[in-house]
Design goal:
Its EC number is 2.7.7.41. This protein is mostly helical. It contains 15 helices and six strands. The chain has a two-stranded antiparallel sheet with strand order 1-2.
């Protein structure tokens, strides 16, 4: 359900950006611009969502011959679809509109990069566990609200010219509040397997499941306090160790990014709107502009979360590796089996399990 909602938001954001491009160049008779833009959106989604299907449904898809062929040649099919759009664009060029058509072609691709690519990363984060989606999204919302509150009551020092109403007091107050909020919500969510388990396909159940034994990242771990603090606490008989969920410590990195770098997604959007002399990206939300006005920081945050997971957290799961193995030729699968068996025997792991 969240994946569908993400797709709906993506389409609306893309539509708002494309509509701005169309309005900026004011050429209502421009051949095929809207059709080409939507074609490239569909092609991009076919590529990215297909990649997700391969990663998370590979074992199930492998059983269906028709789908197996689509997966095997997925990237080639995606490239052919893109080439079709490229040829379509070249054939649609009109002499008096060359510059504007190429400008809008670039506009479409930038929109795809900003919206489609980053929404794809949001979905990848969701499949790693709902906590990787809910916590970052909540941090951005918290930072936005608390920055406004602190700025409203204490703001005096302007922060950036792009947004005259933003103040240093709001920026700092919002950042501090986001760190505290991030620790609290992370601590609560780590206690519920529903939020921390990755979304995977179960062969036994024949469907996607969110049931698992939480990894070490979401189990309480004892940490020793710094020596200088341990000495002070030891005098009063207070324990020198503290039990924390490791994810809570990782949430500090997420909250710092959402409060320090995240707002620059909003500043970027403000600069974009000022460049084209528009107040909002759209009017879908009364009093708040368009969908893009509300999600400008979320896309940047999603990219950071995905990079953070791949850099510091993620290891390939057995299910993902199995889905890749199943696409090997039978002789290659046998070769891999014997190599793995030999390795396990040499390390006495296979004997222990037997």
């Amino acid at each position: 359900m969240i994946t569908v909602q993400t797709l709906v938001v993506q389409v609306k954001c893309f539509q708002e950006i494309i509509n701005i491009g169309y309005a900026v160049y004011r050429i209502h008779g421009l051949p095929w611009f809207r059709s080409l833009s939507w074609y490239f959106l569909i092609t991009s989604n076919y590529f990215f969502y297909g990649e997700n299907l391969v990663d998370y449904f590979g074992v199930a898809i492998n059983r269906t011959d028709f789908l197996r062929g689509l997966v095997t040649y997925h990237r080639f099919i995606s490239f052919c679809l893109y080439c079709g759009g490229f040829v379509w664009f070249v054939l649609s060029l009109v002499k008096k509109y060359y510059m504007k058509q190429f400008s809008l072609f670039a506009w479409t691709h930038v929109a795809l990069l900003i919206v489609v690519t980053q929404s794809y990363l949001i979905i990848k984060n969701i499949f790693e566990g709902l906590i990787w989606f809910i916590v970052p999204v909540s941090m951005i919302i918290c930072n936005d609200i608390m920055a406004y509150v602190f700025g409203f009551f204490f703001g005096k020092t302007p922060l950036i010219k792009l947004s005259p109403k933003k103040t240093w007091e709001g920026f700092i107050g919002g950042g501090f509040s986001t760190v505290v909020f991030g620790v609290m919500i992370s601590y609560v969510m780590c206690q519920h397997p529903y939020f921390v388990c990755p979304i995977e396909y179960s062969e036994t159940l024949g469907r996607m499941t969110m049931e698992c034994e939480p990894s070490a990242l979401f189990r309480p771990t004892d940490y020793s306090l710094p020596s200088w603090l341990s000495g002070v606490l030891g005098v009063f008989g207070v324990s020198t160790t503290i039990s924390l969920y490791p994810f809570v410590l990782h949430s500090l990195s997420l909250s710092v990014f959402s409060s320090v770098i995240g707002p620059f997604g909003g500043f970027f959007a403000s600069g974009f709107k000022r460049a084209f002399k528009i107040k909002d990206f759209g009017d879908v939300i009364p009093g708040h502009g368009g969908i893009m006005d509300r999600f400008d920081c979320q896309f940047l945050m999603a990219t950071f979360v995905n990079v953070y997971i791949s850099s510091f957290i993620q290891t390939d799961s057995p299910q993902k590796l199995l889905s890749q193995v199943l696409y090997l030729k039978p002789e290659q699968q046998l070769q891999l089996f014997h190599m793995l068996k030999e390795s396990l025997e040499n390390r006495n792991i296979l004997e222990l399990n037997n």
